[in-house]
Structures are given as structure tokens and as C-alpha cells.
Amino acid sequence: VQLVESGGGSVQAGGSLRLECMISGYTYSKDCVAWFREAPGKEREGVAAIISDGRTTYADPVKGRFTIPQDNAKYTVYLQMNSLKPDDTAMYYCALRRDLCAAVAPLARERFGYWGQGTQVTVS
Questions:
Q1: Most Cβ neighbours (<10 Å): which of 55, 83, 88, 115?
Q2: pLDDT means per 10 residues in the chain (124 residues)?
Q3: What's the Cα-to-Cα distance from 76 to each of 35, 68, 71, 100, 122, rounded to whole Å?
Q4: CA angle (107, 113, 116) in 5-degree steps
Q5: Could you give the CA distance from residue 82 to residue 16 in angstroms, rounded to a whole number?
Q6: DSSP per-residue codes, 64-97
Q7: 114: nearest Cα among 16, 6, 22, 18
């Protein structure tokens, strides 16, 4: 299983970015895919998750600003980030759990066994 992120970059506060996570080597069906982020000096935190039927969950700091659409035909999950703030600056990682999203603490890091290498987002 490989997860490859892309789409990061530098943007001014209030701007938008769309990250992509392409999944290969695995035909996922009812699996949970999530985005995490890790800022310097902070722990990695879950941002958003989606399963193949479209159900989603979001962390409180990004609700109303971020969405996590997917394209099952392309095995790609996106993170659409709007109204970006400097606090959103972090390395963003895509992660896969080979099961439904957990009913309890769905964005807990230990729920996920496969990770990408990350893509940097900088908001100034």
C-alpha cells in the first residue's frame, strides 16, 4: 500500500489549497482514509476522515473550513482547505485504516496503519 500526498504550498491567510492523496497497491472499499497534520513542536493531530460511502468526520478547529471529498474511481482522497489561518501551518499527512472509521476517536493516530510522506502547508 502506498499513499502519496501532493498539493501543499505557501498561501496567504484567508486563501485556499487542495491537497491530494493518491492510494495505490490496494483496492480499498469500506476503508477509512484520513488527513493528519503536524506542526513544529506539536503532536500529530487528526484533521478529517472519510469512508467510501461518503461519511465524514472533522476535527473542531477545521469544521466549516475544510472538506474531504474523494474520487473512488481514482483512488484519491482530497483535503479542500478554505479560509486558511497561520495556525493551519503544518506538514499534512494522509493515512489509511483498513477498516471502517472507528466509532470512538476516529481521528486517533493509532487507528491508522498506513501513512504517506507528507506535504508542507505554510500560511502567512
A1: 88
A2: 96 98 84 96 96 90 96 90 98 94 91 96 98
A3: 12, 10, 5, 17, 23
A4: 85
A5: 4
A6: TTEE--EEGGGTEEEEEE-S--GGG-EEEEEEEE
A7: 22
